[in-house]
Amino acid sequence: MNSKDKNYKKYLAVRRRKEEIREAKRNLGYEKLDKPYQRGWDAYWVLRDDISKREDAEEIQAIIDHYGTTIYSKDGEFVTWLRKEKRYINHKPSIKTIEEKEYKTLYSWAQKWFEHDPTKDKYSPWHYRTLRYYKCVIPEYFLVMKKVKHWVTHHKVVDEVLEQEWAELDVLEDKLINYRHWSSFGKSGKPYKKFRNKEFRLKEKREIKKTMRTQNWDDIDLPIPKNCVLWDMY
To answer: Beta-strand (E) ranges in 111-208?
Structure first.
């Protein structure tokens, strides 16, 4: 990319300003509502009444409280209709899978409720080794799903000046970039943004054509990768 191009510099300035606005919007925080309102339902695991009388009930409850998840449903049914398969599926809360590093930090009474799950192991290029994962082995019949109302108590603070500036920058950014679709290259139709100055494209195309006429393909030193020549010369 020609770093001295005026439009490219303007494009980078727009991106920097949008990052500043995004951070400012994030720091606005939330404001407490005078009157909370219900929106949907939450569900999570709790111990069955008979299981809560076990000697190790406190241990199980501690694991559920720490690693249990909460699911949300708008209508409180917690089901999804699969159109292609023509059937419903029920959604249930889960208990998180933990890494080996976290597993070793647990007390012995907590470790007995986790076991190694080879199906979750995966190689990490950052650690240069395979990371081991442990799943919770608390039987599901120990638990029952509890459904409660989901209350909205806060709302995001909105700055109209920042929102207006963000919209203006979006319009300016669209003028400085061109959208291209991977479907043109046999890929999916998901678009992506790429800044390509028209003057720079023409100069790049002339250099490629001149080089291809005067040199052998194997010895050509192009300004772009060779595997991009066929689709980038537009």
So the answer is: 114-116, 122-124, 129-131, 133-136, 143-156, 178-181, 191-194
Nearest to 70 by CA among 166, 184, 146: 146
> Average model confidence (pLDDT) for the chain?
82
Do the beta carbons of residue 81 and residue 90 sit within 8 Å?
no
| E strand or H helix at 43 | strand 30-47
Residues 6+ apart with CB under 8 A from 45: 64, 68, 93, 95, 143, 144, 145, 146
In angstroms, the CA 200 to CA 232 distance is: 12
Burial label for 132, CB within 10 Å (0-12, 13-18, 19+), is middle
Which among 48, 14, 58 is positioned nearest to 167, based on CA atoms?
Answer: 14
Positive or negative, the CA dihedral 155, 156, 160, 161 is positive
CA 149 to chain centre: 27
Q: Where are the domains of the chain?
A: 6-29+159-232, 32-156
Work out the percent of the chain whose per-residue pLDDT is above 90.
Answer: 59
Distance in angstroms (rounded) separating the CA atoms of residues 223 and 219: 13
Continuous segment of H or E residues that includes residue 44: strand 30-47
The CA distance from 142 to 137, in Å, is: 11
Which helix or strand (DSSP H or E) is residue 161 part of? helix 160-176
* pTM for the predicted model, two decimal places: 0.62
pLDDT digits (tens, 9 = 90+) for 73-100: 999 899 999 998 899 999 999 999 999 9
Q: Please name the residues in contact with 31: beta carbons below 8 A apart, sequence gap of 6 or more.
A: 154, 155, 156, 157
